[in-house]
Prior knowledge:
- The structure holds 2 protein chains of 2 kinds.
- Chain A has a domain at 14-252.
- Helices cover 72% and strands 3% of the residues of chain A.
- Chain A has helices at residues 2-30, 36-62, 70-86, 92-111, 119-139, 141-144, 170-192, 195-205, 207-212, 217-243, 253-266, 271-289, 300-315, 319-332, 341-347; strands at residues 150-151, 157-160, 163-166, 245-246.
- A two-stranded antiparallel ribbon of chain A has the order 1-4. In chain A, strands 2-3 form a two-stranded antiparallel sheet.
- In chain A, strand 2 and strand 3 (163-166) form a beta hairpin.
- Residues 1-6 and 338-354 of chain A have low confidence and may be disordered.
- Chain B is of the alpha/beta class.
- Chain B has 2 domains: 1-81 and 172-262, P-loop containing nucleotide triphosphate hydrolases (Rossmann fold, 3-Layer(aba) Sandwich), CATH 3.40.50.300; 94-169, no CATH class.
- In chain B, the strands form 2 sheets. Chain B has a 6-stranded mixed beta sheet, with helices on both faces. A 4-stranded antiparallel beta sheet of chain B has the order 2-1-4-5, with helices on one face.
- Classes of the chains: A mainly alpha, B alpha/beta.
- Chain A binds chain B through residues 3, 187-188, 190-191, 194-199, 201-202, 204-206, 208-217, 223, 227, 269, 346, 349-353, and chain B through 52, 54, 73-79, 83-84, 86, 90-96, 98-99, 102-104, 106-107, 109-113, 116-119, 123, 126-127, 131, 148-150, 153, 166, 170.
Amino acid sequence: MRWLRTRRRVLAPYVLGAAVLLLIPPLLGGIPGVAPGYVLYLVSLALIYAIVAIGLGILIGHTGQISLGHAGFFAIGAYTSALLTLRLGLPFVLALVVAASLSAAIGFLLGLPALRLSGPYLAVATLGFGLAIPQLVVWQGSWTGGSSGLHGLPPASLPLGALTIVFRTDQDYYYLAAAVLILLTIFARNVVTSHTGRAFIAIRDSETAARAMGVDLVRYKTTAFALSALYAGIAGGLYAHVLHGISPEDFTVLLSVDFLTMIVLGGLGSVGGALSGALLLTFLQNALTRLPVVHDFKNLYIVVLGAILILTIAFLPRGLAGVARSVRLRWAARPRDGASRVDQIVELGEGSGV
Amino acid sequence: MGAALLEIKGLTISFGGLVAVDGLDLAVGTGEIVGLIGPNGAGKTTVFNCVSRFYEPDRGTIRFKDRDITGARSHEIIRFGIARTFQNVELCRSMTTLENLLLGQHVVMRGGVIRDGLRLRGAGADEARATTRADEMIELLGLTDHRDRVVSVLPFRLQKLVELGRALVSKPALLLLDEPTAGADHRESQALADLIRRMRDRFDLSVLVVEHDMSFVMGLCDRLYVLNFGRRIAAGTPAQVRSDPVVIQAYLGEPEREVVDA
């Protein structure tokens, strides 16, 4: 029973989140003076970035393996999906599956050096990967569209038996992104709270303990890389279709830093944190680029990004999820029955924060 | 002694010219509690690290259940039935007591990221079974009050106990204990010796224990091996070892009684 109660409390924010996602479009329609299409397009982008952030969170937050190259996986997903639908006329769903699989396979391969490298060395190796992917795209311009990119992608469609849903409006894509995000959030939560997730966290906490308990580092590190690359690949495929086109500039190293900042701001080792960090940062970026005062300072966002990273690490090492958690613990430990607060906080000390 | 469960022959390993373990022969029979003692730096923990495959020996063979495990990989060892603890505790610090004991069952549970992510084919039932087993162990070790606390906030003595539990839930045939009494006073050490004996009887264990505390090993172990500078200088029952002049000179020092009765 105790287990059920704990689970229910943890799941509540997700149920609430899903409800909010469903209600956003009708609510936006009710606000006068707002162009719901554009706002929905922005929210869709935020949801797509959140998918990457959740996958990256499993890798960095839970497994303790750094990656500064996730924009590379995002690009692989986007280009694979775009090329397959545009050039070969493959259905969207099939292209997305291929894009995700290819990204996961390359993630697996990038996980192999992680068996020998750690910390800053792994950061540099993955950074190199992230830098190389857009360059490869430009180099192979004859079929990737080079630096001008790929445009005019066919609308995404989803066959459901006899019926085929075709995604045309911003609202359609919004619901698509929301649905994929919800499914992948549930999947991620299931993984991190399971046998596999425990092996990931064990690797982060102590590789020695993990090995002694029978955790195969080769298998689980490569799994974590492949899984996070799978998330980035799926997100990339969605991104290409929401924008109806892509170019190498969409996938710079800055985007990898964006992803990293999202999960640091949200709180490492927390699926909910990755989600909130992604949403917050995407809106912030958009708000900043539209500030009239600074329109001649296009890179203001980068400065703000750096500041957020530094401030979060210095003052909120457990990110927004850590703040939410301590608020919750304090609330649960509010003085009752004369017992002291501190005792109750200690009493409630929780697990690995997944 | 029964049929040898663990048999180490001619184990030699050196680090940068320094021979840490030199031609060690050692055997642990089924159901035995065997002690490995010796002064600091004698190579005791190095032997453990060779058996659990963290170190690569230069020479020698390690056989377990009549199978050569000298070439096995470190994560396979627990699957063969050898579980260990560490001198300075290697727990997963961010996990609770329960989560550490679930991790201890890693090899007895079935895995798979897709199965876990989609909660397929009884992944939930597996987890529930593992939780039941972990809870039994938690109760057996008297850790019920600390079940859902993060282990990093527990005192060292309790962390050692959690680590013991984590090794036991993997259902090993051989338990390697590296200084189980670290951080415990005399009374706690005696309680721990009782506990280890009870666990041996309950789970049909064999135990190899590295220890400094002489009165602890003398009371607990069926047989002892004494190491000094990586070499085995004596072996036998506690009574034999206690009266061995070589041991007294090399390790126990003089006067003998003070150390033994400490």
